[in-house]
Structure formats: structure tokens, C-alpha cells
Amino acid sequence: MDENEKKILSNLVRVGIVTAVNNEEHLARVMFDDTKLPSGWLIVLDNRPFIPDYGGPQRTEYSAGGSGFPAYENHKHDLIIKQWMPVVNQPVLVLFLPVKNADGFILGGMQ
């Protein structure tokens, strides 16, 4: 295996920090420690349970009431479900195809 092949293989799976997110297109940009440059837009794979909303409180379908006042009675909300997306500054695991200038995919977030 020559040096170029070794370099390609060593960059197949990488950990980086999210720098930008496009929720509508399901894409994100990632910065890697060694380059200090953001990647191109990477596809975020569907890999986690769905969540109701990004960056806000997670609502349930029903809310319990209390104290007998009409404003606090039991009531129902529509449940909005969205795919998981990483957030800016979150570490993520990225997989690149083993060819020069290949597309990459965000496999998931890391805590």
C-alpha cells in the first residue's frame, strides 16, 4: 500500500465538530481538528429516533390539567415529529467514501 492509499484510508472515518446545519435539506458542515476548515455540506443519515422539535421543549401529545380551572383542564396538542439533526458545536462521527474528494455522511452525534 502506498502513502496516498494510507492517507485515504486514515481519513475514511473521522470525528469533527458541527459548524453549520441545514435542517430542511438534512445537511451539516463539520470542522476537523487537523484541517481547521469546515467541510462541504455532508448528508446526515437518519439514525436516531424522531424528536418533536429542534432546540425547544419537547411536547407530548397530551398535557394534564389541574386545579379545576378551565385554563388548566386536560387538553390535546398535535405532535410534531422531525428527524434527528446535529446542532452546531456537537461532535459527530463522519464517514467518507474511499475516493479523492468523496462525499461524506454524518453517521451520528457524540456526547
Notes on the protein architecture:
This protein is mainly beta and 111 residues long. 7% of the residues lie in helices and 31% in strands. It contains one helix and seven strands. It has one helix at 3-10, and strands spanning 13-22, 27-31, 42-44, 62-63, 75-76, 91-96, 104-109. The strands form two sheets. Strands 1-2-3-7-6 form a five-stranded mixed beta barrel. A hairpin with a 7-residue loop joins strand 6 and strand 7. The protein is elongated and about 75 Å long. The model has no long low-confidence stretch (mean pLDDT 80).
In short:
The chain has one helix at 3-10; strands at residues 13-22, 27-31, 42-44, 62-63, 75-76, 91-96, 104-109. The protein is mainly beta.
Protein traits:
elongated, 111 residues, 1 helix, 7% helix, two-stranded antiparallel sheet
Structural category is: mainly beta
Radius of gyration: 20 Å
The CA-CA distance between the termini, in Å, is 35 Å
The residue fraction in helices comes out at: under 10%
Which SSEs are present, and which pair or pack?
Layout: H1 3-10, E1 13-22, E2 27-31, E3 42-44, E4 62-63, E5 75-76, E6 91-96, E7 104-109
Parallel strand pairs: 3-7
Antiparallel strand pairs: 1-2, 1-6, 2-3, 4-5, 6-7
